[in-house]
């Protein structure tokens, strides 16, 4: 699907494709259409916008980044390994259903007895799958003595070191489990997390959660590059779904990397990055561009003409000064500066209300997937925390790391390779 | 998101049933027939109440009432013992109004037009067919459960009167120290039956309103007013009068509870609502703002929740044994946590708990409430 030469948005095209599917399906659906709670048209593109749940890798990593995020971190409260496994099974069944655009459970919001609380919370009734993906991860704390997993903790699942200028709030850090819900409709993402949390009562408790309203990365060449709250295109140089070699090298855990159960998985690092957008907005355009290393309008790196022209860190300008400054964000984060290291970014913009001092509590909820954080995320973040000119405008307020197991086969469950 | 609702499918089936019934009665040629899909018309005059049909299938029943008389009238649908199922009042001469009532249970009902809006009105029999009706009305075990819970309610309001008397006596004697000791225990019987007590809206307001609940222009009274006096301001000139009123109100509650109408599903709902109370008022520490005796209330809410479930144990065990054992395990987990904060016969002040300890309590209550909320569906199974 090409966007060139047309003003019709992808979203619009999806809508039209959905309508076609609706007409085709009408004959089959006719029998029960009369008593639908919702208008038929809004449910029929359910299948069209569904991302397959099963596969060798979990969805929600190289899936083209959806517009919306609800991310949640859980603490496990049960001490029973069986209860934990049962929960993961039950979650997987609900996740399969919701990813397909169905309600979380069979009887749903209105199909059960009137005297019982509805099984599904109901706010997604009538909404299509909206490309919902649900991605699970296991935090370092899960591998303590409680569930007999201590000897299965991958060495790559480190406790993240302290980075310079960290301002971490313990209430936004860590957790035994995480679920990343991404969708093109915020209501669908929230519905998914809410229903999983509900299923989890008694076995897990929500530790923290984060909403993101706009993607800040592209993970596929089919997507255009979005902007973060600094107003800059973000993720231009990201690893894309089409870069299968790069994915193998930088994202997917390979056989022999560590314990077998993680093969096909990836390590997720989440950082809640508060942006001081008010002071940023008072900064000269030229300084903003210098800090990033790119032009704000086109997204082209300094010294280049187009957004996707390869970055050249060695171009010098007047007086022999490097066009991309020594402390520019893209220089410090570049594979060239980091000995070839790359990560897959999948972050989201957030605004969590205001801070009581007249400022928006805004920023970027950074999510990265990498094959081994010890050689990828950690050195990158160390370089950025120490030298990045951007650090003057940001603060890392939350932090977590999780091992995301490989994808689920039909009939399997989240983390079955770990618990077998 | 796309699964068709079985309830709605049931409604469609019911509608088909209606059609065939209507056909049959048309053959019979009788005047009073079963309602079709449309509304039942009611012609209300000064001396007659004429319905186009005197029976309807369970579900939503709509009456289209037209006043053809000279007096303002009203129309009622009554259940057993004149329990109001639905009513529409103030229909002036020449006017029409519509009443739609949900009648889930099959059985005998009564309609009434009340010209002049007084008296028993002009009555007629009305029959509702099909639906979930009969079965759950006649379940003896559930009726016994209701009886048994009623005894519990009455025992609690009895204890409430007794304990409140002691508390009130101490307040009136100006013995603040003694009153503070008696305050939290006196409240416990109330907290054990809170969802029922709250049905008596005026009494509940007078007995248990927190200062922030009191509307402008109304007086802050009841337990929490005395709590404030005892812990914050010291007893005031009108504390004795407030205490007298409190005692009179709990005595009135004790009288009214004896005739309170209960159905089997009220029990699990009450059990769940007691935990909702814990989750929204006790865990947050906002119930006992001045005395911080929230854990006493917490204990009483949880006990009351168990007590509402207890009479249903046999039924729930038979229908969903796993659910019952999960609920029991989680009650035990809450008990264990609460026990950590026991001091003598009572509990530590709520403000002494750390944020982590509060979170632990909150999680344990969530863990219990979720399965407990499923009991009502089990009890209502036909």
TrEMBL record, chain A:
Q: Enumerate the GO terms in the molecular function aspect.
A: ferrochelatase activity; heme binding; metal ion binding; peroxidase activity
Ranges for the Dyp-type peroxidase C-terminal domain?
225-408
Q: Which UniProt keywords apply?
A: Heme, Iron, Lyase, Metal-binding, Oxidoreductase, Peroxidase, Signal
Which cofactors?
A: heme b
Q: What class of enzyme is it?
A: oxidoreductase
Recorded hits in Pfam families, A to Z, give: Dyp_perox_C, Dyp_perox_N
Q: Name one GO cellular component term.
A: cytosol
Q: Where in the cell is it found?
A: Cell envelope
Q: Which residues form the Dyp-type peroxidase N-terminal domain?
A: 58-213
Homology family: Belongs to the DyP-type peroxidase family.
**PANTHER family from the entry?**
DEFERROCHELATASE (PTHR30521:SF4), DEFERROCHELATASE/PEROXIDASE (PTHR30521)
The name of this protein is Deferrochelatase
| Annotated source species | Gandjariella thermophila
From TrEMBL, chain B:
InterPro entries, per database record: Cupredoxin, EfeM/EfeO_iron_uptake, EfeO_Cupredoxin, Imelysin-like, Imelysin-like_EfeO/Algp7, Imelysin_sf, Iron_uptake_EfeM/EfeO
Note the superkingdom of the native organism.
Answer: Bacteria
Look up keyword Lipoprotein and say if it applies.
yes
Q: What do the Gene Ontology cellular component annotations say?
A: periplasmic space
**Residues in domain Imelysin-like?**
145-374
TM spans, by residue? none
The EfeO-type cupredoxin-like domain extends over 29-128
Keywords of this entry: Lipoprotein, Signal
Location of this chain's protein in the cell: Periplasm
Q: Which family does it belong to?
A: Belongs to the EfeM/EfeO family.
The molecule here is called Lipoprotein
Please give the organism: Gandjariella thermophila
Q: Which gene encodes it?
A: ycdO
């Amino acid at each position: 699907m090409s966007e060139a030469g047309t003003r019709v948005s992808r979203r619009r095209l999806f809508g039209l494709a959905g309508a076609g599917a609706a007409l085709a399906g009408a004959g089959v659906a006719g029998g029960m259409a009369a008593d639908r709670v919702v208008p038929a048209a809004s449910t029929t593109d359910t299948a069209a916008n569904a991302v397959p749940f099963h596969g060798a890798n979990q969805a929600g990593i190289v899936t083209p980044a959806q517009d919306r995020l609800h991310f949640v971190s859980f603490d496990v409260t049960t001490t029973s390994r069986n209860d934990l496994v049962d929960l993961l099974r039950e979650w997987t069944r609900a996740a399969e259903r919701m990813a397909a655009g169905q309600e979380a459970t069979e009887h749903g919001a209105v199909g059960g007895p009137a005297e019982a609380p509805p099984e599904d919370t109901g706010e997604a009734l009538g909404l299509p799958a909206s490309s919902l993906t649900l991605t699970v991860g296991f935090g370092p704390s899960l591998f303590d003595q409680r569930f007999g997993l201590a000897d299965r903790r991958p060495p790559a699942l480190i406790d993240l070191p302290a980075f310079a200028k960290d301002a971490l709030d313990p209430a936004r850090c860590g957790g035994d489990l995480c679920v990343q819900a991404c969708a093109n409709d915020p209501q669908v993402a929230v519905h998914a997390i809410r229903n999983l949390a509900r299923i989890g009562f008694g076995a897990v408790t929500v530790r923290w959660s984060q909403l993101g309203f706009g993607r800040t990365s592209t993970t596929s060449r089919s997507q255009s590059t979005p902007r973060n709250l600094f107003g800059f295109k973000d993720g231009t140089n990201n690893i894309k779904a089409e870069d299968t070699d790069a994915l193998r090298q930088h994202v997917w855990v390979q056989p022999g990397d560590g314990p077998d159960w993680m093969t096909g998985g990836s390590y997720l690092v989440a950082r809640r990055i508060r942006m001081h957008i008010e002071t940023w907005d008072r900064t000269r355009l030229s300084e903003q561009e210098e800090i990033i290393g790119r032009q704000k309008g086109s997204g082209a790196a300094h010294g280049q003409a187009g957004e996707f022209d390869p970055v050249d860190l060695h171009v010098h300008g007047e007086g022999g000064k490097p066009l991309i400054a020594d402390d520019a964000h893209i220089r410090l984060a570049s594979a060239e500066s980091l000995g070839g290291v790359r990560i897959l970014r999948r972050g989201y913009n957030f605004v969590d209300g205001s801070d009581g001092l007249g400022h928006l509590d805004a920023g970027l909820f950074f999510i990265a997937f990498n094959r081994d954080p010890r050689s990828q995320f950690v050195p990158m973040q160390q370089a950025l925390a120490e030298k990045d000119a951007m650090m003057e405008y940001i603060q890392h307020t939350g932090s977590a790391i999780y091992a995301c197991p490989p994808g689920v086969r039909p009939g399997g469950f989240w983390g079955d390779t770990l618990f077998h | 998101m796309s699964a068709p609702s079985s309830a709605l499918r049931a409604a469609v089936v019911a509608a088909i049933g209606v059609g065939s019934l209507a056909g049959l009665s048309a053959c019979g040629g009788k005047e009073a027939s079963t309602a079709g899909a449309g509304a039942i018309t009611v012609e209300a005059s000064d001396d007659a109440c004429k319905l186009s049909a005197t029976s309807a299938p369970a579900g939503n029943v709509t009456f289209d009432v037209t006043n053809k008389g000279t007096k303002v009238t009203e129309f009622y649908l009554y259940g057993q013992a004149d329990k109001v199922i639905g009513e529409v009042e103030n229909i002036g001469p020449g006017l029409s109004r519509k009443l739609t009532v949900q009648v889930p249970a099959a059985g005998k009902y009564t309609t009434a037009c009340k010209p002049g809006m007084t008296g028993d009105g002009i009555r007629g029999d009305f029959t509702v067919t099909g639906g979930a009706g009969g079965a759950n009305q006649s379940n003896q075990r559930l009726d016994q459960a209701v009886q048994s819970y009623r005894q519990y309610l009455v025992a609690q309001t009895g204890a409430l009167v007794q304990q409140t008397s002691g508390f009130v006596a101490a307040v009136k004697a100006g013995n603040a120290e003694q009153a503070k000791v008696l305050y939290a225990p006196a409240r416990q019987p109330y907290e054990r039956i809170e969802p029922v007590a709250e049905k008596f809206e005026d009494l509940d307001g007078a007995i248990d309103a927190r200062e922030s609940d009191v509307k402008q222009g109304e007086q802050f009274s009841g337990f929490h007013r005395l709590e404030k006096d005892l812990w914050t301001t010291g007893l005031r000139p009108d504390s004795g009068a407030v205490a007298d009123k409190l005692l009179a109100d709990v005595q009135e509650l004790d009288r009214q509870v004896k005739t309170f109408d209960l159905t089997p599903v009220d029990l699990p709902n009450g059990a769940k609502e007691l935990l909702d109370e814990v989750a929204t008022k006790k865990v947050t520490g906002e119930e006992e703002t001045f005395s911080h005796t929230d854990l006493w209330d917490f204990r009483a809410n949880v006990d009351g929740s168990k007590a509402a479930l207890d009479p249903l144990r046999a039924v729930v065990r038979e229908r969903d044994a796993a659910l019952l054992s999960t609920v029991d395990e989680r009650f035990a987990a809450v008990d264990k946590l609460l026990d950590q904060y026991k001091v003598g016969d009572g509990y530590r002040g709520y403000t002494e708990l750390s944020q982590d300890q509060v979170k632990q309590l909150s999680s344990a209550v969530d863990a219990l409430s979720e399965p407990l909320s499923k009991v009502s569906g089990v009890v209502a199974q036909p």
